[in-house]
Write a structure and sequence with these properties.
The chain is globular and about 75 Å long. The protein contains 13 helices and 21 strands. Strands 13-10-9-8-5-4-15-14 form an eight-stranded parallel sheet. A three-stranded antiparallel sheet has the order 1-2-3, with no helix packed on it. The two termini are 39 Å apart. It is an alpha/beta fold.
């Protein structure tokens, strides 16, 4: 995806001074230190058919978001120039995201592997006791740690908040627009090193070996959006049965074998290509000129075309238990594809594009899918409609996903975050796009009745707000009663180990023993105050929602008899955890 580059200087290192940390910062750090992390290294996953399971045979669902920056010239996740890493990861986890996809460059991995980690140029880190931000990124002398050290710290902190992570190789070279390059090889790094296929594999194997005993880093997305049009020939990624260097299927199989040799527990995510052969006419070949009619090529989104799996699947020497296919899919605000040239529905999208391109892999139980990128602007029109249709299809069909993206500086899509404000007294205030998050939030793995987010960590729930359960707690106490929203609503049968669809009224009959009561702020009438209520209130205030089926009187949370922006502010404060009740 297109990225807007933020030109920000490296913040000053620590200033030598005396005094104590503010009470709020001290309290927060004490809380974190007291939180037990899960170091059992037992959270690795594997595939059976189209589903992912943990080591105990329990099904899991990866529902996350992207946070880019390690792929860029800054060599670090973006917005750490404005916000504290603990505040950011805590907010991510509190919002129910259970996995983060971190784009990274092969160039950066090579620098780590060679023992000369590239420096970062976009981190604010200061151990001044009166302005402590990203203290863990500072060396004892106040200088800022290098990119590898900061990445290691971020992964460790993901563990502390119950989050899992995986990396994707976004480009061979460190470049804010590196995703535009077609292939996984063939670009020089800043020091003149040519990234070859062998070096790409070697750097990934090095990282997999480094993290083979840490199940926080669950998976490796081998290359972001291999692409190129067929007529580009050897300069474009293809998918066939050859051993040509630009054959993505061959390269991905080689890389998967090498990673699984050092860490047989890692998931290997394989994206698609852009075009495949159509078979329109006998004798057509990869690299031939395109035709206006009966094109020899079938188009798709970059990284979206997985038609080749049907005849040439990725089969490592150890089998396919660690293979997950990871297409990308976007809506008309990114590009006006032909399948949007109608009043499209889920069925037309399946017929015109989704099914033959990637959905058949899930439907035919070939392998799990993880939509590595989806998202876009909230336009109130076709793009929002597409996001909703894809979201619901993923929910109904146990498809894993990571939303693009958390960052606000994605030029094509915007982000889930809208801004940051750091204060030494209160830490970072992170603003979320309430309307976009409300659309996305429904696709996060959560229990059906109580709405608790489900962690992928057996011992550690997500975040600090008590709105999540660990994987063990879910299967011990929730899965066989209220179930989760996986597959559109399923209950786990503890005796058989299988899941069954939730029938109307079933969860109420098996889990509810209390009488429903009115809840202050519950506009939607579902018994809880969520971002869905905030979105309805926002639409009401701007005159776009007068749905008589909603109880807008519940939105008067300050009790002054009118619904105003003051009520909206209290909703935001409550949902962000800044106030305890409405």
């Amino acid at each position: 995806m297109k990225i807007w580059k933020a030109m920000l200087p490296l913040a000053a290192a620590a200033i030598v001074t005396t005094g104590a940390l503010s009470s709020s910062v001290s309290t927060f750090q004490t809380t974190l230190t007291a939180t037990a992390v899960d170091d059992n290294n037992d959270d690795w996953l594997h595939a059976e058919g189209s589903r992912l399971y943990d080591s105990e045979g329990h099904e899991v669902w990866l529902t996350g978001a992207n946070w880019f920056g390690f792929n860029c010239s800054e060599n670090c996740a973006h917005y750490l120039w404005s916000a504290d890493i603990d505040d950011m990861l805590e907010s991510i986890a509190n919002h129910g995201i259970n996995v983060i996809r971190f784009p990274i460059s092969t160039e950066l991995l090579i620098s780590w592997m060679n023992g000369t980690p590239n420096p970062v140029s976009s981190v604010s880190a200061n151990n001044d006791p009166y302005y402590a931000i990203n203290v863990d990124f500072c060396n004892a002398d106040g200088s800022i740690k290098n990119s590898m050290e900061i990445f290691d710290i971020i992964i460790q902190k993901c563990k502390e908040y119950g989050l899992k992570a995986f990396i994707d190789i976004h480009s061979p070279h460190a470049d804010n627009s590196g995703h535009n390059y077609n292939l996984w090889y063939g670009k020089e790094t800043a020091d003149g090193t040519m990234v070859t296929t062998d070096l790409w594999i070697e750097s990934l194997v090095w990282l997999a070996d480094k993290y083979k005993n840490d199940d926080t880093l669950l998976a490796y997305d081998l290359k972001n959006e291999p692409h190129g049009k067929g007529q580009e020939g050897s300069a474009a990624a293809k998918w066939d049965d050859s051993t040509d260097e630009n054959n993505w299927a061959y390269a991905a199989t080689r890389c998967a074998n090498a990673i699984l040799e050092v860490n047989p527990n890692a998931l290997i995510l394989v994206e698609g290509v852009e075009q495949s052969m159509s078979g329109a006419m006998a004798g057509d070949y990869w690299g031939m000129p395109d035709r206006r009619d009966n094109s020899p090529y079938i188009p798709a989104w970059w990284g979206g075309n997985l038609r080749g799996v049907k005849d040439n699947p990725i089969v490592p020497d150890s089998g396919t238990s660690q293979i997950v296919y990871s297409p990308h899919d976007y809506g008309p605000s990114v590009y006006a594809q032909t399948w949007f040239d109608k009043d499209f529905t889920t069925q037309t999208l399946l017929d015109d594009y989704w099914y033959d391109t990637w959905a058949y892999i899930n439907d035919q139980d070939i392998a799990p899918l993880l939509i590595g990128e989806w998202g876009g602007h909230m336009d109130g029109g076709d793009n929002e409609k597409w996001m909703t249709l894809l979201r619901d299809y993923m929910i109904d069909n146990h498809i894993n996903h990571t939303f693009w993206c958390l960052n606000t500086n994605s030029g094509d899509t915007g982000g889930l975050w809208t801004g940051f404000q750091y204060s030494p007294d209160t830490g970072t205030e992170i603003s979320w796009d309430a309307e976009k998050y409300a659309l996305f939030e429904e696709s996060l793995w959560q229990t059906l009745e109580t709405g608790k987010y489900i962690s992928l960590d057996h011992q550690r729930a997500l975040g600090t707000e008590g709105n999540s359960v660990s994987l063990t707690e879910f299967y011990d106490s929730y899965a066989s009663t209220e179930g989760s929203n996986l597959d559109g609503g399923t209950i786990w049968d503890g005796d058989s180990g299988s899941t069954k669809p939730v029938e109307t009224g079933e969860t109420q009959a098996t889990t509810s023993t209390t009488t429903s009561v009115d809840v202050t702020g519950d506009i939607t009438g579902d018994g809880a105050v969520t971002n869905a209520d905030l979105v309805q209130l926002l639409k009401y205030l701007i005159g776009e929602n007068t749905d008589s089926g909603l109880d807008f009187s519940a939105g008067d949370v300050d009790g002054d008899g009118t619904i105003t922006g003051f009520d909206l502010t209290r909703y935001r404060q409550y949902l962000m955890g800044q106030i305890d009740s409405l």
